[in-house]
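Readers outside the structure-tokenisation community will struggle with the description of the input data as it stands. What matters is that the chain and its backbone geometry are given together, residue for residue. For illustration, here is how one protein appears when written out as sequence plus structure tokens:

…
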Amino acid sequence: MEELLKALIEEVNRIDKKLDKIIEQNEKILDFQKSSLRGNKGNLISIPNKGLKAAPDALTLLSFPTSFRKTIMALYKLGEATAEDIAKETSRMRAVESAHANYLVRLGFVKRRRKGRNVYFQIE
């Protein structure tokens, strides 16, 4: 009986540690959302730690609004693409995709290069 109780306590402690990690990750996501994508009037603002030079991880990707996630997922699929290519993939207007892609460039998640009159976006 005593061994069973010890085993149960150990399992509860393991679960407690896992829950602490999940809570910590959720707090990071909430902090990111609060401080990054929307200002008081709904205008897009820049993220304080925009020096990021890597593709967004799963948690960061989930913290973006759906409209930005569509753009990011289209870029993952296409590799390198113009705003028009992204728009065809997402079935949205080119201007919307251009604005989203340029915002992701400012955040440091996407790289931009110009070739002639075309601007190509690519996830770093």
